[in-house]
């Protein structure tokens, strides 16, 4: 194994870069649910972190098994992210416009929506599997774990920031959260198409 300081630095850099979408979506979730409990915050950050661990490993696995099939699907990744985030963001926006004075008792983002967010924000991490294809399985696993830890920390920060502003924005938070998700979907789509 070649676990040099540069290896760890690259893994942290990948983690920060890949976690930015999950960080933004976490902020939107915090805005949507300003009275979110710590356990729920850890669960949300854990979902995003889990997907950020799984996707690079899946990409690594694809390179070592079915790379040609994955390469043909890669051009659809921006479309998938856009559709998933537009679906969730549009739903949040509709709910916010319908019920501008929610009581905050029901969680704003359910498990199914959270899983869709996890896929949408981590789908670009599949391509990291290509960049780490020359790593041994253990090195790829360590890289993915570091990416996951960084994602978890950044998502918790995003949730705390969103919660803080969500209390101040009260009934408008769901509308703002939905708009943020739509913008993130567009950003992923545009950068994916341009790249």
Describe the structure concisely.
79% of the residues lie in helices and 0% in strands. It is built from eight helices and no strands.
Secondary structure elements and their pairing?
Layout: H1 5-32, H2 38-64, H3 67-73, H4 77-98, H5 111-122, H6 128-131, H7 137-169, H8 173-194
Helix pairs in contact: 1-2, 1-5, 1-7, 1-8, 2-3, 2-5, 2-7, 4-5, 4-8
Protein described:
It is built from 8 helices and no strands. By secondary structure, the protein is mostly helical. Helix 1 crosses helix 2. The chain has helices at 5-32, 38-64, 67-73, 77-98, 111-122, 128-131, 137-169, 173-194. It is globular.
Helix/strand class: mainly alpha
- Largest sheet properties: none
Distance between the termini: 32 Å
Radius of gyration: 17 Å
Mean pLDDT: 82
Key attributes of the depicted protein:
globular; 8 helices; 195 residues; mainly alpha
